[in-house]
Amino acid sequence: MKIAIINFGHVDVTLTLFKNLIKSSLDINLIFCFSLNRKSESVLNFKDISVRTGYTDYNKTKELLGPEIVNYLQDITTVRFFIFHNLKLRSLKNFFLAIKFAKSLKNYDIIHFNGTNGVLPILIFLLRKKKLIFTIHDIHSHSGEKTRLNFAERLNNYIARSKYPLIIQNMSDFTYLLEKYTDNKTKFWFIPFGVLDVYRAFENSEIKTPESDLLFFGRISPYKGVEFLIEALKILKKKGYNYKTIIAGGCNVYFNTDDLNELNILLINRYIPNSELVSLIKNTKVVVCPYTDATQSGVAMTAFAFNKPVIASSVGSFTEVIEDGITGSLVKPRDPEQLGEKIHLILNKPDLLREMESNIQAIQNEGNNSWSHIIDRVKNLYFLTFN
Question: Which domains are delineated in the chain?
Fold first, then answer.
């Protein structure tokens, strides 16, 4: 059984999955799909490296992965990149590249698409007679990011209606699909992802970042509720508590920044390189995710890689991966009062903080979110699909 994982996004999750799959002696290849105008995603960033369309050779693959990921994987002989002209559906150059790419996949028994993109409909058509599996990370767009005719949601709905198995990584989306497609329940598989230890590959003692009590990290977007964190810190300040907080991430700042200095908040509004991000996480006490809606838990699973407790809104898969009072705390979304209470509770009790850190370390090899359990589920799906 020869398997190809085709990655269109969430590189950190795919890399960790792939590393654990190859331990199982599966004949499996990993192909990252990027384009001339999109050369970064998650832990990969090769914006300053020249590439050509088509497949990369071993040396170019090694260059694009970078030394940290090469060291993380150890053996990269089964990893390649395929570079498209762009990632748009309506592109003649992409169409011919998609034909070339699809032909190269004909010898695989199973093709597992991880994530979606504009060229995927072409590939689905060209490979329609093959055994395909899909992983979709977000069935719905986040609030503040919706468009009138959302291409991604329409593509997701098409895949959900198709005959192909679909892996869903959070229970809320999984339940939604089971209720919507009652005649096709067996094609949906709930398989979460575990702690994203790929980030440990970027630990670098030479990178210096400030220490903090609280850290918010990731792309800044309205659905992530940063304004509620700021309001919680205002409430705490009125009570005499002033916790050092770092907000680190790129994109447009949509919230009021007038009071940041007074509230002891450092805003780092730019792309955060991997090694700097890891240093920020290691130098904080608690990671905070005051989201108003969410599906995935990438931030939580990144924080857990460094045994950092997470305070998060009880939305999406946060409720599935955070044990309230054990590995962090869950709060009502849009509730700065309760958020402030949980922040103070953990930061004011060093013994509780240390206990949570120990709990996070202990659960990484246990339960539904352990990679051993996840790999068993994925392998089961592969064998059922193959047979």
Answer: 2-194+370-386 (3.40.50), 197-363 (3.40.50.2000)
